DNA sequence: GCGGCGACGACCTTCATACG
DNA sequence: CGTATGAAGGTCGTCGCCGC
């Protein structure tokens, strides 16, 4: 993802274009939903079958007030729906909507990252999902819809097909959370055991990794594009280095293999957001990712790693 | 037994400023 | 340019209580 060109062939200032890509990224509204500490846990819990309120509260060890708020929010966002199983008193069980079920690929890819990069902290799905082609435990790869080759980070580049706006849009709204990953006093050992879900929950970390995936490498560039306080950024960079996701090279930072490996899950979340979020939340206008080997847009789909069969 | 509501407290983020 | 510090304000989980 090195060249930043318009479809006309004219080049545009790279840093401006990167800022535009990052600031309009679908990841902001997606993380507003999935970045909540309990959201993925709830979705993961009911991915195979509906569950009742009390069952969820016990399983997730979440207070009833917090669970009630999360379920309302997920229902409002369209990820889950409730089904009444008792009229007096009114009692409900909760199940995924089509929109919620579409997160299956994201969950599987996050689980794969945990399995590959953590030691003994992977969180299996309640009942592992099976490939409907080969019936083995489902492991996914993200491939190009046109040529079926892998959509790896270095096989794509963003292509701008309209003028950049006069002003780069401001950051999209960002709901703060109080969930820090690791306290300052924690050792580097704990940073190495942070799961993909936990990186996701800490939205600054996920947005910083996103910026690096778009080729932003310097402290000041990340700070200005993400509009992040310098102390917060310094803390996250330190943590990401401790976790082996980034390393510092001279005056810049570089993504390591462990960080690049988060890319498929981030792609899956972005794809989910583009398909399911309301149009007014999708700000990615005027550019698309190009798949260099086949020359088509990088439209993604999922394939089973074992048998290569396409997964919906 | 389920779930809403308000009070409370922990702690996270922001902001301003300063330093090497 | 990159990082550190501390004050202030904001967010969110927990708890206790209550109504249905």
TrEMBL record:
Q: Membrane spanning segments where?
A: none
One Gene Ontology term of the molecular function aspect: DNA binding
Q: Which Pfam families does the record associate with it?
A: HxlR
Alphabetical list of CDD domains matching this protein: HTH_ARSR
**Which domain of life does the protein's organism represent?**
Bacteria
Q: What are the UniProt keywords, alphabetically?
A: DNA-binding, Transcription, Transcription regulation
According to the UniProt entry, where is the signal peptide? none
Q: Which GO terms describe its biological process?
A: regulation of DNA-templated transcription
Q: Where is the HTH hxlR-type domain?
A: 24-122, 189-281
| Protein name per its UniProtKB record | Helix-turn-helix transcriptional regulator
Name its species: Pseudomonas lactis
